[in-house]
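step=encode ok
step=design start
structure_in=
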């Protein structure tokens, strides 16, 4: 079955936008739509954005002159290089439109698949008994550690072979390598800036806390410092002191958590 890339990227797009998400739309010969994206980190609202974009692709198939029988399935696939679901053991999550009580699924409509790469710790020796998804994850994570000849031996199937040939082509092209190195450096710089901003907020919070004197006051002061520093970094106006005084410790904790999430999202998107 042939697959057509609907939005082929230009290398210059990635060189100019160092932190853009790798976002690919493709269709197969049956008209099924695939949306694949790679994310380096968890951002606020990630799951809702995946649902929104999947629905947008499903809705966008119809013109005014067509009816619903023309709709084809949409598969939205997110490959995430960070953990999203806490201590969950599974690395592959499949979401469908379903009636959980009666165990019925609306097949061939919309599906969202999410792969958390850090959960996969396969070794080369495990590939013989690994699932197809596990084998693909291993290839994505470790292709750079092998030469093309070895990869073809480890993954002789046609689909893998085509991907390996693509990897080899990329490694031989200067502009592709430049794109990869530029985005890799940008990702490290972004992580450094994000961690620095969060550490600054926490240090400011500890300084505020030490000035309060009692346990609850120290917690309030720490949270107040975190909030004020985060708001400053995000370019928000300062709250009046009286507004902080009216908030409970739990409200301050929630506010600080929300602002730190915004800061991480800003760092990942800038």
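sequence_out=
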């Amino acid at each position: 079955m042939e697959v057509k890339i609907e939005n082929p990227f230009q290398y210059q797009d990635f060189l100019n936008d160092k932190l853009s998400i790798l976002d690919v739309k493709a269709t197969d010969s049956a008209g099924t739509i695939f949306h694949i994206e790679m994310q380096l980190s968890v951002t606020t609202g990630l799951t809702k954005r995946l649902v929104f974009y999947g629905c947008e692709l499903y809705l966008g198939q119809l013109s005014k002159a067509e009816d619903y029988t023309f709709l084809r399935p949409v598969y939205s696939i997110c490959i995430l290089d960070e953990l999203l679901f806490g201590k969950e053991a599974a690395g592959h999550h499949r979401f469908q439109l379903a009636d959980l009580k009666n165990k019925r699924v609306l097949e061939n409509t919309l599906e969202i698949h999410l792969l958390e790469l850090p959960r996969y710790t396969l070794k080369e020796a495990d590939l013989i008994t690994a699932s197809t998804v596990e084998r693909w994850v291993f290839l994505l994570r470790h292709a750079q550690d092998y030469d093309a000849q070895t990869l073809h031996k480890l993954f002789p199937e046609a689909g893998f072979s085509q991907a390996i040939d693509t990897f080899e082509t990329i490694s031989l092209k200067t502009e592709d390598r430049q794109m990869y190195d530029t985005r890799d450096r940008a990702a490290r710089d972004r992580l450094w800036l994000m961690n620095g901003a969060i550490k600054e907020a926490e240090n400011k919070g500890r300084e505020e806390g030490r000035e309060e004197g009692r346990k609850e006051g120290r917690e309030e002061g720490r949270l107040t410092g975190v909030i004020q520093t985060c708001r400053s970094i995000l370019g928000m106006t300062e709250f009046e002191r009286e507004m902080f005084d009216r908030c409970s410790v739990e409200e301050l904790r929630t506010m600080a958590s929300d602002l730190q999430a915004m800061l991480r999202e800003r760092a990942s998107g800038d």
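step=design ok
step=annotate ok -> Residues 10-20 have pLDDT under 50 and may be disordered.
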